[in-house]
Amino acid sequence: MPNERDLETSAGAESTAASHSATPAAPAAQATRDPTRSDPTRSDPTRSDPTGGDPTLEPTLGQLVSSLTARAPDTVLALFVVVGIVGAGLVWLVVPAWWRVVPAFVLLSAVGGWGIADRERESQGRRRVVVAVVRAAAVLGSLIAAATLVLIFMGVTLGSWIS
């Protein structure tokens, strides 16, 4: 009956023989790898993976927005907020007949606000509370704007068919 030491020695010999064999197992595995997935051996600090590196997970909407806004510069996020608020206000006040584009501007400003607040999420004290309120307002605003956009789309596309 072989003891543990004999089993370890024979297992080591088999793995050494397998690594020196003529069949290239490693290149076949590399050839079947999906090139669209991120390479774990390459580190790129400008890219963030919303799934945390697990290729079997699909990112949630929050992870996706967080990853997209994490890559955007601060000026772009601030521009999103300003353009969203000013655009929605101008459309609402100057051309009220175009009210259907207001939710798109609200959604743009909500994404910018979310991105700015997401970067400040590690704050302490009172600032942390303000950041949490801004993030919650951005989520609520984006949900309302997205639902409104879906209802507007449904109304425009199905309205003439149903009536």
Question: How would you characterize this protein structure?
Answer:
The structure is a single chain. The chain has 163 residues and is an all-alpha fold. The chain has a domain at 61-162. 67% of the residues lie in helices and 0% in strands. The protein is built from 6 helices and no strands. The longest helix has 37 residues, at 126-162. The radius of gyration is 26 Å and the shape is globular. Mean pLDDT is 76; it is low at 15-31 and 33-47.
Keywords for this structure?
6 helices
How many helical elements? 6
The succession of helices and strands, N to C, reads: HHHHHH
End-to-end distance:
85 Å
Relative helix content: 55-70%
Mean pLDDT: 76
Biggest sheet details: none
Which structural class best describes the helix and strand composition? mainly alpha
Q: What share of residues are in beta strands?
A: under 5%
Total strand segments: 0
Task: Estimate the global geometry from the Cα principal axes.
Answer: globular
Rg is 26 Å
Low-confidence stretches: 15-31, 33-47
